[in-house]
Amino acid sequence: MKIAFCSKGCDLEAQVDERFGRADFFLIYNKETGEYTSVENMAKEAKGGAGALAVQQLVDNEVSVVIAPEAGPQALEALKNFNITVYSQNGAKTVQEALNLWSDEKLDPIEEPGKKGLHKV
Amino acid sequence: MKIAVLSGKGGTGKTTVSNNLAALVPEAVLIDCDVEEPNSHIFMVPLISGELEIQTRYPVIDEEKCIHCQKCAHFCRFNAIIAGPSLTMPLKDLCHDCGGCELLCPVGAISYENKDIGRIYSGTSRFGTRLIYGQLHIAELVGVKIINELNRQVKNMSLVIADSPPGTSCATVAALDDCDFALIVTEPTPFGVSDMKMVVELLRGKNIPFTVVINKAGLGNNEVYQYCNGENILISGEIPFDRSVARAYATGELAVEIDEEHRSLYLDLWRNVFAESEMNLED
Fold first, then answer.
1. How high is the ipTM of this complex?
2. Which of A53, A62, A77, A116 should we substitute to test contact with B (largest number of B Cβ atoms within 10 Å)?
3. FRET label pair with B282: which of B71, B110, B164, B271, CA 20 to 30 Å apart?
4. Could you tell me if A103 lies within 8 Å of chain B, comparing CB atoms?
5. In chain B, where are the structural domains located?
6. Which tens digit of pLDDT belongs to each residue from B120-142?
């Protein structure tokens, strides 16, 4: 099972990013092997539809759980459709802390969407 | 002849200038292209004689036919389709209705459906000038199709004044379609000048001749004069900052209705702008 984190850097000690669609990186952790890879978020500089493009990258990387600060209404609906569960990273400063909290089942699922993006295109 | 009134910065006086001019020139047609927040009708008070609903299309996926090749998602530059190995999900709010995904789909799994995005109202104003304005529905994001329809409706009219959206986005570019001349409304403030520079770049890029009117003259500093001077941009008029204009505006009255002095300011502005636009048309 693959878990994605919104991250400001490329390793487990990196800070979590406080944005989902425009996070710097997605750090993708493989629960079975304990290995992780980092994916530079293509949606970071998108003019519009950043949330959608972020979801596309998670789908491409076969992620089934994402730990995020929040997700907008369209992104949340899309994540649901692609069977990706979203948990709130609240309380974690680094990816490692978020991973530990998630492993201990201490993270709450996000069920209500945050603010809608501006779509300035 | 189509003359666009635009500014870059919001609140410099696009509506003030375009409406005052339209009130003085009843043979003109005023179109309000600021479809996100049209307000010309508040001053022109038209008797509405025509309404038209504007629609856009968005893709719908037939999951029975879809082979999940993901070509549509890779193609869409607005990220309006998310595609996985067993699901293809369109996001209709992000779609710009280019039709590309439908053409591209190798198995014909994509079709388009319509949705309402806004409405166009037309009528004769209390000054006798025709007003056509568009209004984007609440929660809709893209008003370009409404502006395109406004343009289509006035295509063969001899004199059109277009109250344009602020900024230099797709909507402003759409308002400039078929435009022969532009009038930039600016104010003598750092923001007014900074945002005006983007409009100057846009108009030069589209080869549309233009002049400038300085609204709220007397406020701020002289940076705008220096800039226009340095760039060889003609200033067609100056409207002094005056509380009586703001007071009238707040009650839905135009400056040209206050007194002869304000009326002649706008008459002079119109003469200058019209003469300049005619001259450019001959060139």
1. 0.91
2. A53
3. B164
4. no
5. 2-45+126-282, 56-116
6. 999 999 999 999 999 999 988 88
pLDDT value for A91: 83
User: Is B93 in contact with A119 (Cβ distance < 8 A)?
Assistant: yes
Fill in the amino acid letter for B154: V
Segment B185-242, tens digit of pLDDT: 999 999 999 999 999 999 999 999 999 999 999 999 999 999 999 999 999 999 999 9
Within a domain: A112: no
User: Do residue B82 and residue A56 have CB atoms under 8 angstroms apart?
Assistant: yes
For residue A119, tell me if it sits in a domain: no
Domain B56-116 has CATH 1.20.1250.20: no
Residue in the block written with tokens 């201990």: A104
Q: How confident is the model at residue B283 (pLDDT cuts 50, 70, 90)?
A: low
Q: How many angstroms away from the CA of B172 is the closest CA of chain A? A: 12
Contact (CB, 8 A) for A5 and A99: yes
15-54 of A, contacting B, C-beta below 8 A: 43, 46, 48-50, 52-53
Say if CB B172 and CB B196 are below 8 A apart: no
What gap in Å lies between CA A114 and CA A117, rounded to an integer? 9
**A119/B91 touch (CB, cutoff 8 Å), yes or no:** no
Q: Which positions in chain A touch B87 (Cβ < 8 Å)? A: 81-82
CATH of B2-45+126-282, one of 3.30.70.1520, 3.40.50.2300, 3.40.50.300, 1.10.3720.10: 3.40.50.300
The model's pTM is: 0.81
Reduced to 3 states, what is the DSSP secondary structure of residue B212? strand
Interchain CB distance below 8 Å, B87 and A55: no
Enclosing H/E stretch for B2: strand B2-6
**Of B37, B3, B50, nearest in space to B22 by CA:** B3
- Calculate how close chain A gets to B60, using CA atoms only, in Å: 15
The beta-strand segments (E) located in chain A are: 2-7, 25-30, 36-40, 65-68, 85-88
Which residues of chain A have a CB within 8 Å of the CB of B73? 56
Nearest-angstrom CA–CA distance, B84 and A61: 10
* Structural domains in chain A (count): 1
As given in the structure block, the two tokens for residue B192 are 């007014």
